[in-house]
Amino acid sequence: MKAVRFIGDRELEIAEIPDPTPDVGEVIIEIKASGMCGSDLHQYRAPKGSRAITIAGHEPCGVVAEIGPGVTDRQARIGQRVMDHHYGGCGACVHCRDGWTQMCEEGSVVYGNTGDGAHAQYMKVPAYTLVAMPDDMSFSTGAAVSCGTGTAFGALQRLNLSGRDTIAIFGQGPVGLSGTQLSVAMGARVIAVDIVEERRNMALEFGADAAIDPSDGTAVQHIQELTQGRGVDCALDCTSSPEARAQSVRACKPWGRACFVGMGGDVTFEVNNEIIKKQMTVMGSWTFSASGQADCARFVMERNVDVDALFTHRWKLEQAREAYQLFDAGKTGKGVFEF
Fold first, then answer.
1. N or C, fewer C-beta in 10 Å, the chain?
2. Full-model pTM
């Protein structure tokens, strides 16, 4: 089969490798859609030799093609349409039992990073990682829910977002745009913040009330003006930028909530005035649980959220070099490889 592997320093290879075969407790997914996520760029840009070379792609969606020994009919069926909760763990610790396999006390495998992922015709995973798809969900939507859209949904749940709230979402890449779509579907008022005009325009198309360019350093001031001087009820940072993270806290009103999902980077606060005296809640959110992924899929279908509208580019696997060069430029919506 063909498979995409990141070499480092913005290079990748499209390799011909043997098709995988399932071991005990494993299944083979025939991939139908494999999404491109912002965190893929961390591996794509990494220096050569700094990480193990595995098959890329951690937004898997497809059909069960083969079942290994010990897998029951309740776990998987040939031809079943599935997403994948793209982590492997011990299966016994409290986090694994709760569906938060990425937090496994024995250490986790991240498929598409430390284990082989979905930028390939077939993907081998433990049967317990499968998440059933709604029958009428597209494979590309399933791929998005398998990380980017699911990550935004998990963060909004952590923020306890409601229709009473105004939320500022910093960064309108694939996760931030998903956050805009989902927040609008939850009834909230959205203020989108991004330095790229194309992404600000997409946010407005998705229902954002306003879109702000933070390049001149006045994003918090603009948010204050849009909220009659009060600030937003909550903020979501999808950038990992120190400046955006600090602004997301400063943009909140007293008793506000801020959540970080962008991976990497750091941030500095003036704790007394920006956190303690504002009675702020600042939290992180790391993707979602297996059940949370299923909850996101149900929400998307019940509220008719047009997740497929996130995809500005659809690619064949053979176009991976062009796809990642364009995605790396940071001016597109979401990309997906379709099989």
1. N
2. 0.95
